[in-house]
Design a protein that fits this description.
Radius of gyration of chain A: 13 Å
Strand order of the largest sheet of chain A: 2-1-4-3
Structural class of chain A: alpha+beta
Largest interface: A-B, 14 and 12 residues
Shape of chain A: globular
Largest sheet of chain A: 4 strands, antiparallel
Oligomer: homotetramer
Number of helices of chain A: 4
Strand content of chain A: 15-25%
Chain lengths: 121, 121, 121, 121
């Protein structure tokens, strides 16, 4: 999945960090491309966690949920980041995890994540 | 750079703390002028971190990003402070770090930071 | 590097998580093999950070340094885990980062890490 | 003071980060020489804090005080690091602050700190 996302990123002319998490939000795999800022690792993971926990795109949560999400992340001791760029990994209607990317525009991040998800299906 | 910022501060009749960080946000140099409150050291550093991580003036981030920045700082365990007073240090289009100042008005803080940046070029 | 470590793990009949970090301790790549506990991701990363920051095997630090390392990790807000299983990535005498593994015995973890390092050379 | 410490370090053929703190342990000035690891900034500061708060060399505290110092640092929310390499800045019998260095052997760190202190007198 990460290879597909990186290929998509290269085609768009951007460099990204992408992260795959399981349904619990724990890290399964991560790859940071050359020259990408360190912060993107945490951002990609945070987006992926958000997508996995809610079973939907990380950018699809209503903005007014922001404070609740912050409390949720604190209570559950996980890193929730409701920013566009992560998509859930779903099989037979069941969320298995998510993949999130960071480093370019939010739309490009999500496009790269989608390329990864499509490999999985 | 710090000497130039302090000279600029003295010309404005203010006393400041200025901090230089690298592109990762780690402290490279810091100087607190006589009589400046201790809090300014953390504020100058936090502004500089923000400017380095985003490659732009610390006061230029849109206010609605506030909550996301708070989450980001918490997730990445770094001190993000999106307040005017820090400028990125850029060479050949690449951000190498930032310099941030604190102790006077935000505009004066930024003016002193600019004096430091100009020495670097 | 991760592929080489996973191949070595498979040959030993164990399943691991391995993590690669840069010289600052920031995550570059991580891969968790099927069926490996979530905790191994943090452990592999912590070992790798330790190896990168000290430029030596994570298991080589003297035990009496334990309390100091705990303080250091807390002060520098990074995850130091002085347990065998990570090796530094060195080129021309300069530490570039480290690779750490977790999931089997400490010796097997280190053997898998070594397989990864050898690919790099 | 920092210039004198850096000169001493250069004479010893080492590169350091040195930090000056006031009697409260708050940062007054810091300088990281080229190529010195980020961790040294926190270590130099932590040593200097320890020296300033106890009015003695940071390496002079008895090892059995370790756990108490850790609790003290946590309670007072400051970073105590009882490792050799920092010396108090004293005038007329009164501790005004401390200077701490990190990056070489503990003895060299302290020697560089001493060069800084001697400039102050």
């Amino acid at each position: 999945m990460l290879a597909a996302s990186q290929t998509a990123a290269a085609k768009m002319g951007v460099a990204l960090t992408c992260a795959v998490v399981d349904v619990r939000g724990d890290l399964v795999a991560l790859a940071r491309m050359d020259g990408v800022a360190f912060l993107t690792a945490d951002v990609a993971r945070g987006k992926a966690i958000t997508s996995a926990l809610f079973g939907q795109p990380s950018g699809g949560l209503p903005p007014q949920m922001g404070p609740i999400l912050q409390s949720l992340g604190s209570i559950a001791r996980t890193d929730i980041l409701p920013i566009q760029g992560a998509l859930p990994i779903v099989r037979n209607g069941q969320t298995l995890g998510a993949i999130g990317c960071s480093g370019a525009s939010s739309q490009q991040d999500e496009d790269a994540a989608r390329a990864g998800v499509q490999t999985f299906r």
